[in-house]
Amino acid sequence: MRRSAPTSQDVARLAGVSQSTVSYVLTGSRPISPATRRRVEDAIEKLGYHPNSGARALRSRRSGVIGLMVPEAYGSDAVLMRFVGAVAREAQRFGYDILLVTAQEGARGIHRVVRTGVCEALILMEIGRHDERVAAVVESGLPFVLIGKPVDFPNGSVVDLDFERLGRMVVDRGLELGCENLLLFGEPGHRRHRNDVSRFLLGVEEQSRSTGLNVVLDAGDLPEVPRRARDLAASGGRTAVFGLSGVTEVLFAIAATGALEEPGLQVIALTDEDLAAISPLLATVPRVDPRRVEISERAVRELVRLLREEGATPRVTLVEPEWVQGGASRGSGVGGGGAGGHGSDGTAIEAGGAAEDSGADGTGEIGET
Amino acid sequence: MRRSAPTSQDVARLAGVSQSTVSYVLTGSRPISPATRRRVEDAIEKLGYHPNSGARALRSRRSGVIGLMVPEAYGSDAVLMRFVGAVAREAQRFGYDILLVTAQEGARGIHRVVRTGVCEALILMEIGRHDERVAAVVESGLPFVLIGKPVDFPNGSVVDLDFERLGRMVVDRGLELGCENLLLFGEPGHRRHRNDVSRFLLGVEEQSRSTGLNVVLDAGDLPEVPRRARDLAASGGRTAVFGLSGVTEVLFAIAATGALEEPGLQVIALTDEDLAAISPLLATVPRVDPRRVEISERAVRELVRLLREEGATPRVTLVEPEWVQGGASRGSGVGGGGAGGHGSDGTAIEAGGAAEDSGADGTGEIGET
DNA sequence: CTGAAAGCGCTTACAG
DNA sequence: CTGAAAGCGCTTACAG
Known about the structure:
Chains A, B: GO terms for molecular function: DNA-binding transcription factor activity; transcription cis-regulatory region binding. Chain A has 13 helices and 13 strands. By secondary structure, the first copy, chain A, is α/β, with parallel strands linked by helices. In chain A, helix 5 runs parallel beside helix 13, helix 6 packs parallel to helix 7 and helix 8 packs parallel to helix 9. Chain A is elongated and about 85 Å long. Strand 2 of chain A pairs antiparallel with strand 2 of chain B.
């Protein structure tokens, strides 16, 4: 039943060439005549040959495997799998496999996969403000990308949603919709220590200060949100309701039932398009897409760039949130300029030598060199 | 910055032994004197040595990597990540890493990871009724485990929730709560083709037939569920409401807002404990835990058994759903006997040589030999 | 209880 | 444009 897999030796024999020629056809590191190439490719096809990954890794020091360090699941982790799936698919496109490393393993996990050589590059998710893993991955010397931008990060590639801009966008949209208040739920206050939340709040506070929108954090536990919203609207005027974090999507099922469908309330949703499809009523409110698939794919492509481009330097890419419904597309429809700290022309603003690109198309750009 | 990792040669030199002795200490495949072992271990510690995975895999044909074939994300995939995370953590415990293979790759993906030798075993999720991957994985000769039991499966290890029993449990609980109707949502009708749904419906139909509970499928789209439930209760009497699939958890946020809190309605929730924590009101309804972490862990342990036990035969393990709230624990509180097709004493009922264990503790058992 | 040596299947200088 | 050969770092018979 389990015959051992064919080797390049078998392919060479069948094609009538040397074993090294088979290897050269595969790696492309030497010109091969069309006729020879053809014979080798036919033999490969006929035998169903795949190069042994252990031998290849041992010899070339390239395993073809990217380590993905995933955070411990917390609350509703629908969000997490969206990243993981997209990373795996995009890596596949470039011929890489994804190996899971759990956050639980910490810096030791990074050392392990580096030392064993099982991974030739790493993607880390949800880096905290003072995270031992950053030092570990930098020290490892392997190419790496962070999904999720720490507030302060010395040098290295990052791909993340532009949360600060998201904050400004939500404030602007609330104003545009004639609201006097913005009620935030999903515990943004409690989770201020999280990089994404703190950056989001930075944007909200900045933009609300300059525009006069009244912002209320901490709407309380989930079931209390509708009541808090109604109270706020009754006492303080028209109120926009917005929730951050993975909890949001669950919460919007609430909105979908009509609990928040009242004249004085205006829901703004942060949700993936396909999740929106679950609840038809979500189609009626302005939605902003957190672009998780886009971010995951860009993270992989950035890593591939670092792996394949000689002397490539790390890059910070902030992807713009995108209005899907109830606003201009591309995220640039509302107060695009704002009081933002980064330009829209590719200005480098990061310390430590990393360049931040924010292309004219509303997302950071990764240049091909 | 990136000095190359130390080798077993380096360890041997430092410990003053031969390179093979280092290897024997690591593999444990030969008795080593305590003194020598000690010196080797110290050297390993001092150098931070980890054996090169490529070399090890090349020589031993054991990569230490388990492939996990994950389904394409659909709808709310919170559920998926719960499996993936638990599988990764449990594999870690046994010294294995998890490599993601996307369902998108299909049978070709299985051939690839088998032929390259990158995986030495496989876990497959969400096998369909006629799935090309089953033939591929059987033919590969690698040890494998399915998470999710196809209705008909020839021979091989399976770990899954006992969906048939879940069906019976829900019917019994509904009756116990004085209901005359059971409204099922989460599109159980449309998704009848899915293995889990069809097995669940089998249990529901069987038990409702023998008890006279009126079962209604297809409660419609999410937002319509509360109205349908109220209508049913008004015309037909007290109604239990139960939803299958990942959508359930989102839906229960609806219940949590009180949309289903009416005298004639009785919500029964299928949800992980930690998700229940999001919504305090969930604590007030009977909940049944789909035991995803338990299933994932058992899948890994079953695979480890196949990998390490000489001549181990595949085994089918059905994990019992567990009442968490509003019922006896351990799932055996309600109609434990039922009209079920499997005993509670470890009787083998599967065709094709696979044995089904259903231990007295309410879950299938994996014996250590 | 330990060592010297072969060899897993590749990639890549070295040669022609 | 192609081949013969070294060697990546292990594991595991073969020897003592």
